[in-house]
Amino acid sequence: MGDGQLRVGLVGTGPWATTVHAPGLADHPGTTLAAVWARRADAAKELADAHGAIGTDQLDELFSQVDALAFAVPPAVQAELAVKAAEAGKHLILEKPIAADLAGAQRLADAVAANDVASLVMLTLRFSTQTREWLEGITRAGGWHGGGARWLSGALLGGRYATSAWRQDASGGALADIGPHAFDLLDAALGRITDVLAAHRGEDGLWQLLLAHEGGATSTATLSMHLPVQPTVVEIAVYGEHGYRTLGRKAGTAGESYTALLDDFAAMIASGTTTHPCDVRRGLHLSSIIERARELAE
C-alpha cells in the first residue's frame, strides 16, 4: 500500500467493470486502480489508460502491481483466477455468483481461508443505506413468519447484458445472476435459508422457488430476466406480527453501494479482519442455494 491507499487490480473490461468498478476504485480515497487485466491486452490497456493504471494480459504482472483484486468476469473465469490470486496473497472483491457451481465455490472459499485474505462479494443492495436501515428495523422488530422476493426484468431481451453467454445459459440466467441478491436479502431478513423446498424453471426462464429459513419462516422468490418489464420490478417483502414491510431498489445506487463496499473492504484490510457478513462464505452459502434449486428443477 502506498500513501495509505490500497492498490487494487481490476480483472475484466466489460460494462460492469467500466461503469462501476473502474471509476469506483479510482475515485475512492482508500483505493487506487493500479492495474487492469483482460485476455485481450488492447482492451486492458484502453480501460487502464482512462484511469492512469497499467494494462496487462499477464497474471504475473498483474499480481506484482496490486494488493487486492476486483473481479468483473464470468463465474467460471472468476473461480479459476481468484483461487490463484488468493494463493498469491491478494485480497478479493468477488462478483456473484462466486463460481459456476458449488464445487468451484467451495474451492475458492477454501483458498481464501487457507491464505488468510480478506474477501467481499458484490451484493450491491446489501451495501446501500436504504437496505441497511430496512434490515436494522426488521431485525429490531422480529416476529416475521414469511416473506418473498420479486425481481422481474427484461435485461436479457436486449441491452448491454443480453449477449452475456453465462447469463443466457439455462444454468445461469435469473437464478445465478439476480438470485443471489434475492436470496441474500431474504436470508438476512428472515433467518438463514436452510433448504430449497421447491424450485421450478419455466421455458421462458422464469424461476419460482419456495425456501425454508432457520427458525421456521418460509419465503418465495420469483425471478426473471426475460420479461418485457420497464422499469425493472424489485421488491423484497416480509410479513408477521408487525404487519407487512417492503424494500425496493432505488435507481442509480450502484455507485453509492460500491463506495460503501470499498469503505468496508479498506477497513477490513487495514485492521487485519477477514470476516464480514458478505465475505466469501456468504458467496458459498448462496451457491449452495443455487445448486439445490438447479437439482430440484431438473
From TrEMBL:
Gfo/Idh/MocA-like oxidoreductase N-terminal domain mapped to chain residues: 6-118
Report the GO molecular function annotations. Answer: nucleotide binding; oxidoreductase activity
* Domain GFO/IDH/MocA-like oxidoreductase span(s) in chain numbering: 163-243
Pfam name, any one:
GFO_IDH_MocA_C3
Q: Which UniProt keywords apply?
A: Oxidoreductase
This chain's protein is named Predicted dehydrogenase
Organism lineage: Bacteria, Bacillati, Actinomycetota, Actinomycetes, Pseudonocardiales
